[in-house]
Amino acid sequence: MDAFKAFKACVPIAWSPNLYITLVRGIPGTRKLHRRTLEALRLRKCNRTVMRWNTPTVRGMLQQVKRLVVIETEEMFKARKQKDVNHRALRPPVVVNHLPVPAKTDSS
């Protein structure tokens, strides 16, 4: 199972009131019907995310373009965003001292 399918299979989508939809595949080369569906979902560029209500209409549209998008629940979306924020957070700089360490003398 590839990463996107594993990512999609984490949470049952039917339980979530809102869906976060991310376009992960490019639009060029797709069928006109799929392009119009993506336009209706307001997905115009790759790696852009939109939030839509979880209705049968939206789920039907997503079924049509399921190979082009990743669908997340609100909890999954917030967890992914928090992971990105933590990854980009400022970390203390690594200090490397190239000077030789003076040897300790044993005066006993």
From TrEMBL:
Stated family: Belongs to the universal ribosomal protein uL30 family.
GO CC aspect terms: large ribosomal subunit; mitochondrion
Annotated GO biological process: translation
InterPro entries noted in UniProt: Ribo_uL30_ferredoxin-like_sf (IPR036919), Ribosomal_uL30_bac-type (IPR005996), Ribosomal_uL30_ferredoxin-like (IPR016082)
Protein name according to UniProt: Large ribosomal subunit protein uL30m
Matches recorded under HAMAP family: Ribosomal_uL30_B
Any one Pfam family match given in the protein's UniProt record, by short name: Ribosomal_L30
Domain Large ribosomal subunit protein uL30-like ferredoxin-like fold, chain residue ranges per copy: 20-69
PANTHER family (alphabetical): LARGE RIBOSOMAL SUBUNIT PROTEIN UL30M (PTHR15892:SF2), MITOCHONDRIAL RIBOSOMAL PROTEIN L30 (PTHR15892)
Highest taxon listed in the record's lineage: Eukaryota
Source species of the chain: Tetracentron sinense
Keywords: Ribonucleoprotein, Ribosomal protein
